[in-house]
Amino acid sequence: MDFLKVFDMLAWFPENISTFGGDLDALFAIIYYISVGIFFLTFGILGFFLVKYRYRPDRRGYNYHGNNIVELTWTILPTILFAAIGLYSDEIWERTKYSKRVPKADLEILVMGKTFGWMFLYPGADGKFGRNAHNDRSARSLITLDNPFGIDSNDVYGKDDFFVENQFKVPVNANIVMRGSSVDVLHSFFLPNMRVKQDVVPGTWMNIWFNSFKPGHYEIACAELCGTGHGGMRGQYDVLSKTDFDKWSDSKNAEMLAAQTPAPMASAEPAVADSTKK
Amino acid sequence: MSTAVTHSSEAEHAEHAEHAHDHGHDHAHHDLPWYRKYVFSTDHKVIAKQFMLASLIFLFVGGAFALFLRWQLAYPGQPVPVIGTLLPSQWVDNTGAIAQDFYYQLVTMHGSIMIFLVIIPLAVGMFGNFCIPLMLGTDDMALPRLNMWSFWLVPPAGVIIMSAFYVDGGYAAAGWTSYPPLSGVINSPTFTVSGQTLWLIAVFLIGFSSIMGAVNYVTTVLNKRAKGMKLFDMPLTIWGLFITAIIITLGTPVLAAAIAMLFMDNFFHTSFFLPDNLIAHTRHGIEAGAGQPVLWQHLFWFYSHPAVYIMILPLMGIVSDVIATFSRKPIYGYKAMVFAIAGIAFLGFIVWGHHMFQSGMNPLLGTTFMLSTIVIAVPSSIKVFNWLGTLWRGNIKFTTAMLNALAFVSMFIIGGLSGVFMASAPVDIYIHDTYFIVAHIHYVLFGGSLFGIFAGIYYWYPKMYGKMLNESLGRKHFYWSFAAFNATFFPMHIIGLGGHMRRIHDPSIYEFLKPIEGWNKFVTIAAIILGFSQLFLVINILWSLKYGKKAPRNPWRANTLEWAAPPHPGHGNFDRDIVVYRGPYEFSVEGRELDYWPQWEPGKSISVHHHTIVVDEKQESNAFGTH
Amino acid sequence: MSSALNLAHEPVTKIPMGKLAMWAFLASELMFFTGFFGAFIVLRNSNYTVFGEGSHHLNVAMALTNTFILIGSSLTMALSILNLEKGNVKNFRLFLGLTILGGFGFLIVKYFEYSGKWHDGLFPGQEHHTLFFSFYFLMTGFHALHVIGGVIPMIFMWLKSFTKSGYNHPVKVETLGLYWHFVDLMWIFIFPALYLMIPYHAAAGAAVHH
Ligand code: HEA
Ligand code: HEA
Ligand code: CUA
Ligand SMILES: [Cu+2]
Questions:
Q1: Would you give the DSSP letter of residue B280?
Q2: Which partners does chain B have (≥3 C-beta pairs < 8 Å)?
Q3: Which of A176, A278, B321, B334 would you call most buried, defined as having the most Cβ atoms within 10 angstroms of its Cβ?
Q4: What ipTM was reported for this prediction?
Q5: Which ligand 3 atom is at minimum distance from the Cα of A187?
Q6: Residue range A14-54+66-100, CATH number
Q7: Contact B189, B282 (CB under 8 A)
């Protein structure tokens, strides 16, 4: 009976796992029901007229040029309806996208799009990013293919910053704030289940935030044409319980430490090598 | 044509007189060499036919591209049936399956061809040329030679855009929106010609052609109306085209400017749209200055949002005329219709940002663009309700033209409603760049514009070629197209809600897209049926050219001025002086035997409570003075 | 039959066809340059330093000369129209000739300006200044193309006036005059935008940046 889902379009959404996702889906549903109503109204009238006033040899059309009151009515009513939709939408829009409404971060992550993959930079054990292209514009000149975040390896805070590729992990029930950019062309950071979509633009940083209430394993996609590999720019992410997440980030921190003790290597390369092996 | 309201004496008279007029008329131009008559003609009707021919050919090219990409989406990696291995090796791998980079070229070329070489030339080029002088009761455009050039820029543009096949890397592959930096030619030396640069040149040429045409239309409408024709005596087709021409005049140059800049970025290594320190753009130094990729989007959509109205307003006009004629009723709220067109055009210039909600522009702007976009649905609603009002108490005849016009109205409602979802910025977060958008595009552009174009072709073919189209083939074309169209594009809403991104070549690699896999196959099969249904149209056009019934002067018993011209008008159009006595929609006037009252027939009437009542059918009216 | 018809009547608005079309076209042209200016404003405001430094490298003297040449040619254009309307063919030729000369003068100065920039390595695709000189060449380049586009029909009209049939279409010259004034007007905007509006803190620029 999957087929019956045609009539209930809302059933086709992938499962929502984000705190604001419910609002977005509900708004969709409201507009959907309004639209279905208008659809049946207009198509009903149309069908009725087509049958009732179909051609009859013994009938004539009705010479009538329109009535201002009727026209005013069907101008004002939709205007009110539309205004209501607009104002209600705006409240949700402000909450999800306005930069001043971005909640206080429990965890801050940098995300970088690159043809054709996603990279994520975590602040590491100290919970603080070192100098990089996000917090210091001049560090943009440090960006290379091997150092996409422009990390300054001389900065003490930066020593433990680690990055992972095409996958990331976040704790459940926490405000995650991401700052996104791209090293080459436009990409769009799309987390279908999280109801997150944000283009990332080389040269600027975008605010992306979410808060998930449901642990699990989900997919990342790219929603902006970025070249031949656009369709394959797939990644995965995990929403973990607090303890699982801490375990993972501790192991990452240990890796970073291990990599640095023997010989002070440049930037965070070891972490990349590790994360891609998985 | 067995109707209660029998043939008017006027119509019969006209049909008899036809021969004499017809011939006397053509003689003057027999001395033109053939290439001036059929190729570099300055006759607006010939130019209209040229637009029609060129664009219908491109409709098939663009459609074939669509079918290729549909195949890949439903059966990723499987060889294209029948012709797979015959295709050029740049396009397919050795099994005959579509190559990954070719997929992106297909999407780009499909969208670009359909918009720049099919819908705009058909809606504006073909109908603009054919209808404006005839419906204004004049002999030709204001500037016929300029008009000729506006057509002759299109074929070279078509050749240029298609010729990228011969260039390294093939066709442009950045989508019809060509967002930089992707559309920038990364790290290639200056003066490289790529598919993308050819795309830019071609679109620039088409834009230039549009502007030349539009300037001509504006001048013609303002300057060449028949005697007695006030602006508010013009049929809605002309209003739609006139206001479209204004949009083109003001919007297209901005696209031209943006294209000039992107072209320079690619060809001369300027950096309007490229930020500095791109790792892929080593040529930009630190102090080179930082261009902005999003700036292109602003410039592009400043044109391309109005452009979607360029693609629908002329058809809204045409559909209004068809609906009025076949329901034998005046347009409900004619002036409201005109103001709605103007309102859509005006608002169209301030809503472009709704394509950019997720682009990274300031979300504050998102709010303003959302509100303005939602407002633009109001004039559209007015139009829909007025069309319904026109059908109310009509005497509706379901000719093929009428069927297509009704399809326009109903499909535009669906496409418009999906537009309202996307206009709500928070809803757009999830559906942006998914197949929900693709569904919207096709409901408004195919379900709307293309069905409107079909309606116009069925309606005016008799005047274009002097032959009637075959109605039963026409019906077949309509019913197959209509059913297959909905089967193809309605499920795309569902595919989109499932999260399927646009412009991806292989949905099967995503776990979350598994549930909609079946729909992709269904859609593809429907699309193939839809494609082949178009053959009815082609056969009909060609068959009727030779074997069609000879068209009378006014086969639909309509009111507008083009029907005063002989069935197959020669250069100069009319065989009588045209004087306009009334508005274009006086159907079923009380006190008149005939259920229509052409604009050019003398007579006097009064308006009582929104009805027109005959006072004297024959009296010469002098209301318009000497003019 | 057809000769008896009176379809091709007087323009309804009383404005000649070509002239009305030219007005519409100029509206279009205005939007074309508006696209450039819009981009200019946006990028200048986010790159003051680059624009300030770039501006310093321009040759204001040459541009000023060109401004006077163009304004002068607009004047001679107007005079040539006036003379043709009055039937004074000789003066028409004189003033149109001067206008053409003005157009060429402008282009010659432009040539020297461009080759200077080329010589100094001030063009797009360089380590420095790319963005400013992108706009410089874009805006002055398209403006120069418009100058060429105006001079060509002028030469045609001018030469035609020497033939036996002469040239007697004041309306056409007037229409071309409209275009020419527009080209002049555009320069009046481009000149200060590129040459004179040096961002106020540009001097401190080098220190701010990097
Ligand atoms: C002919 C072409 C055409 C037309 C007419 C429209 C009409 C509209 N479009 Fe569409 N649009 C496109 C062509 C068109 N569009 C294309 C090609 C794209 C994609 C470009 C790309 O990215 O490639 C696009 C994309 C697009 C987007 C961007 C989506 C995204 O990328 O995320 C948005 C967002 O707001 C939008 C909105 C609208 C709206 C609100 C209308 C309105 O004008 C619709 C108004 C109509 C109605 C509302 C229906 C009729 C009214 C009633 C029956 C009355 C009662 C109704 C109510 C009370 C609700 N369109
Ligand atoms: C008026 C415009 C118009 C029209 C008519 C169409 C018609 C069709 N489009 Fe169109 N489409 C666009 C405008 C249009 N499209 C635009 C603007 C885009 C966005 C592009 C972008 O993202 O940049 C798009 C994108 C687009 C996509 C999204 C691709 C992607 O994002 O990956 C898809 C996918 O299904 C699609 C399918 C179709 C189909 C099946 C048809 C069918 O209706 C086609 C029917 C076929 C014909 C009319 C031709 C008939 C041909 C034959 C009978 C010959 C058959 C012969 C052989 C196969 C050899 N289109
Ligand atoms: Cu990255 Cu698409
Ligand atoms: Cu739009």
A1: T
A2: A, C
A3: B321
A4: 0.92
A5: 1
A6: 1.10.287.90
A7: no
